[in-house]
Amino acid sequence: MQAISVQQPWAFGIARSGKAIANQALPTAYRGPLLIHASMRVDLKACDHPLIRSAGWDPRDPLATIGAVIAVARLDDVCSKALVEGPCDCGPWSQPGAHHWRLTDIQPLPRPIVALGRPELWEPTQTLLTKVESMLTTTTQSNHGA
Question: Which single residue of 19, 47, 65, 141 has CA 20 to 30 Å from 92?
């Protein structure tokens, strides 16, 4: 499993509203499970973006935190068309001039897990993975009445 750090409120958009695109400066060959980490940086201008407002952005929401893993997703594909050919069909969350990492199976965590991130794709520690897996297992069991 790998992880990516995303600025708030964009990370919130992924976790809370199914924002299925992570706009990144670089492509990646990696495909598979991906932790969504809210970086320590906040894009203050984006807090008033119409898509973020429609996602229910609330700075008091636990998943609006910074410096923590807030969701798990699957990285299925990367679209680089916007850099080479012009506009693509990746949807309203995609930004021109970025690689669009296409996310599926997005699961917000019930509460953030504090962790240090990195600017590019990074490998989480085993301790962090254990915490995430434990939290997801507990959530799945409680959702199924176990």
Answer: 65
- Residue 106 carries which side chain, given as an amino acid letter? I
How far does CA 100 lie from the centroid of its chain? 12
User: Model's pTM, two decimal places?
Assistant: 0.91
For the chain, give the number of residues: 146
CA dihedral 133, 139, 141, 145 (to 10 degrees): 180
Strand, coil or helix: 136: helix
Integer Cα distance of 48 and 111 in angstroms:
24
In the chain, the domains with their CATH numbers are: 2-143 (2.30.130.30)
78-121 tens-digit pLDDT: 999 878 777 888 999 998 889 999 999 999 999 999 999 998 89
For 95-122, the DSSP string reads: -TTSEEEEEEEEEEEEEEEE----SS-B
Whether 66 contacts 39, CB under 8 Å: yes
Task: Look at residues 66, 80, 78, 61 and name the one whose alpha carbon lies nearest to residue 36.
Answer: 66
